[in-house]
Specification:
Distance between the termini of chain B: 27 Å
Oligomer: heterodimer
Distance between the termini of chain A: 45 Å
Radius of gyration of chain B: 21 Å
Order of helices and strands of chain A: HHHHHHHHHHHH
Radius of gyration of chain A: 18 Å
Number of helices of chain A: 12
Strand order of the largest sheet of chain B: 8-9-6-1-7-10
Chain lengths: 223, 309
């Protein structure tokens, strides 16, 4: 880790350090690299038991457990997808919220990063027969786009048309929910701009498979 | 500022020359170079007149290059497209802008915190890191005690590309000497943060150049994207033309990114960690094009900041 990091910055515990910050040869790496490299050629096989144990360990550092959930998800594990679904049930109560923020607005982006792990695990889910669980996890995330900032991941630049076709129902339900919330918001206390943008991005995503339906939804988004 | 745009245009013109001949290349460079071949005021004036111009000029450079590299089309078709892009380039270079002072903006719900202190959702008290036993701190750009806009760590070692990629390592973000900005389209519009500051980048650049401001660098979209592109080229071992996608500003769709990443990895035999690095940088380049992202390295003195709300 960078030696300029402040005293209060997150420090991984022993298991997370080994799984996500150390290469097999003992040199330092980053969680994104460690997780992605293990996603290929079943590299996750020797790592998954420790990741599952870390995710289940309630005494462990919350962000360590978050990384374990991210890794299991990226590796196509049904355990990871189930954890994502559970987290989406109560996003504000997750102990790892706010450990990571985006570069433009300093907004929490833990769920945004988690959404990438779900989306990018498409091949691993096919290999492991967990596509249904993956789609359920993605649907759960789509269902909280009125409450949680996803950067731009749930949009045409973040989603596959095949996933959008499978999740058309949840997407349209969420667009309707977002439109209702935008319409109900008092003019003097508007919702954050990303709420409206995420409704539009979901509609744009829908536009990858049905442009007319997407245009009809977008026409209803308040200016 | 501006130099990265000229570099991008020069490189694009060079590739146009290799594909369509010297005359086609010269027709492009004549638009922004004077007889002494030095950086002319044309690009500087264009970038200085409208905050959108920097991103637009980089897009033209990308498309000139992309067109020159096209396969399966005739030289005549390439020449027609090249002429259209050259006209767009000319239009932007001669567009006087909106007439208002161009600025870049940053929004945040709380600029006063030098770090974010997450609260435990149950106790409502600051979260304690179980490894260190100390309150969790997430470093961020903020207004410091002097009223200056300070990045998470002015002396941090995080690179420009690492800053844009972000990712799952909080230490990388907490060690960033960069602050991200978006082009400002005036006052109003959708708010992502309850507070907003704008920076007059022309004045700041002028005073950096004149030695009044030290330790600060402004990176326009061409510079940010050029840095990411350089790392993509480094991974591949040669220059890779990253195509503009089908979304606004050249952003790629998810299938476009995935297909291009796989193609490049296969073409250059890129595997393992390098493959992940490549994928992350293609994604970052696409995102940076979408956002027309500007970066400022170092601490911006308060006198260059305008508080909007």
């Amino acid at each position: 880790m960078d030696d300029t990091a402040g005293d209060g910055q997150y420090q991984p515990g022993e298991v997370a350090e080994r799984l996500f910050f150390t290469r097999p040869d003992g040199t330092e790496t980053e969680p994104d690299s460690a997780i992605a490299v293990a996603a290929d050629d079943e590299g996750w096989v020797p790592l998954e038991p420790d990741a599952r144990a870390l995710l289940a360990d309630e005494s462990a550092e919350p962000y360590d457990r978050y990384l374990a959930m991210t890794a299991l998800t990226r590796w196509g594990s049904p355990v990871g997808y189930a954890a994502v679904q559970a987290a989406a049930q109560d996003p504000d109560e997750q102990p790892w919220r706010d450990y990571s923020i985006d570069r433009f607005y300093s907004l929490d982006n833990t769920f945004a990063l988690l959404s990438r792990a779900v989306i990018d695990s498409v091949d691993q889910a096919v290999e492991r027969g967990s596509t249904a669980e993956r789609l359920a996890a993605l649907a759960a995330l789509i269902g909280i786009t009125d409450r949680v900032y996803f950067e731009h991941n749930l949009s045409p630049s973040g989603m596959y048309p095949e996933d959008i076709a499978q999740l058309r129902g949840p997407i349209e339900t969420q667009i309707e929910r977002g439109l209702a919330e935008l319409a109900a918001a008092p003019a003097d206390v508007p919702l954050p701009g990303w709420v409206s943008d995420q409704v539009e991005e979901l509609a744009n995503a829908l536009g990858m498979i049905d442009k007319d339906a997407a245009d009809a939804y977008k026409a209803r988004i308040p200016a | 500022m501006s130099e990265a745009i000229v570099k991008a245009l020069d490189e694009a013109a060079s590739r146009v020359g290799a594909s369509l001949g010297k005359d086609a290349s010269k027709a492009i460079t004549d638009l922004y170079r004077d007889s002494s071949s030095k950086l002319t005021d044309v690009v500087k004036r264009s970038v200085g007149s409208d905050v959108e111009h920097a991103g637009q000029l980089k897009q033209i450079a990308d498309k000139l290059e992309q067109n020159a590299a096209r396969t399966g089309v005739s030289d005549a078709e390439k020449a027609t497209e090249n002429a259209a892009l050259k006209q767009k380039l000319s239009d932007i270079l001669h567009d006087p802008g909106s007439g208002t002072k161009p600025t870049i903006k940053r929004e945040d719900n709380d600029f006063s915190q030098d770090h974010f202190v997450p609260n435990d959702p149950k106790t409502k008290q600051p979260k304690i890191d179980k490894t260190t036993g100390k309150p969790v701190e997430v470093g961020k750009s903020h207004i410091n005690a002097n009223g200056d806009l300070e990045p998470a760590n002015p002396n941090g070692k995080t690179t420009m590309t690492q800053h844009v990629i972000g990712g799952n390592n909080p230490a990388i973000k907490g060690s960033s000497p960069y602050t991200s900005f978006a082009p400002s389209k005036g006052v109003g519009g959708k708010q992502y943060g309850s507070h907003e500051y704008q920076v007059d980048y022309n004045k700041l650049q002028q005073d950096i150049g004149g030695g009044k401001v030290n330790g600060v660098e402004i990176h326009d979209p061409a510079s940010v994207q050029g840095s990411i592109q350089g790392e993509i080229d480094g991974i591949a071992g040669q220059h890779v033309v990253v195509p503009h996608g089908s979304l606004p500003n050249g952003e790629m769709t998810q299938p476009e990114k995935a297909a291009f990443g796989k193609q490049v990895a296969q073409q250059f035999g890129i595997k393992g960690e390098a493959k992940n690095d490549l994928t992350a940088r293609i994604n970052a380049l696409s995102n940076s094009r979408r956002d027309n992202e500007w970066l400022v390295k170092g601490t911006i003195p308060g006198s260059y900041l305008t508080k909007i709300r």
